[in-house]
């Protein structure tokens, strides 16, 4: 993946930051979608109020950051605000989509998976891998996504030159914005729910797998299958370091990304097409981020 050299941050630009714009875009789309659902009589008034408040809050933050482009704290506040808002949306958006959108994407995703596998379902083909031992082993890496993501974000915010940090935050915002559009308009619960009757037996692992199941069930059950942010965010963090940051760290990440991807399929939380879409979106975000920032820097001269 080629990208232009990191553009030094300009001393001043009045143009809105692409990470701010991406975050405002997804907040506005979610809010408008919920408003349309409420207008149809769907009882989502509380969720609409929450997302209106989130949109207003981030709008205020973005305005403040735009008014203070030269402040030393601006890039750090932007990074925390953008990433924090995306994490908030991850929790607030989950099951709202199934009520706001009058269709389910699982049938189409399952058909797409069969096309990829020449007429057979990858989820069903991989049933033999779902032994108790493999289930528990892969559950460890599925759960490792959270600390891996947090560590990647921490290193992305405090362990990079300013231009790289700006590019990382922008790519992160673009990936999550595109992914949440998928969560919202293609609501899906994944093979573990949609194809439950097609499997020979439920998965049986050990304590790690049981903890994952309890945690997901406590959040209302599987949701947000398309695309897989487990894979998209993991791929983005590794690819960014391989091409723009610490190559050694990027290569260390690669086996973890592969095992996380395998876990999402074997544990039945995602279709293969979810992973393909995630990698494409992450690649697009990595491609677009430096170019959007270069355009913004040029506008500020």
TrEMBL record:
The chain crosses the membrane at residues 21-42, 48-65, 77-98, 137-156, 168-186, 250-269, 275-294. The keyword Transmembrane applies. GO terms for cellular component: membrane. It is found in: Membrane. It is a multi-pass membrane protein. InterPro entries: Aur1/Ipt1, IPC_Synthase-Related. Its main location: membrane. Pfam families: PAP2_3. Residues 109-287 form the Inositolphosphotransferase Aur1/Ipt1 domain. Keywords: Membrane, Transmembrane, Transmembrane helix. This is Membrane-associated phospholipid phosphatase. It comes from Longimicrobium terrae.
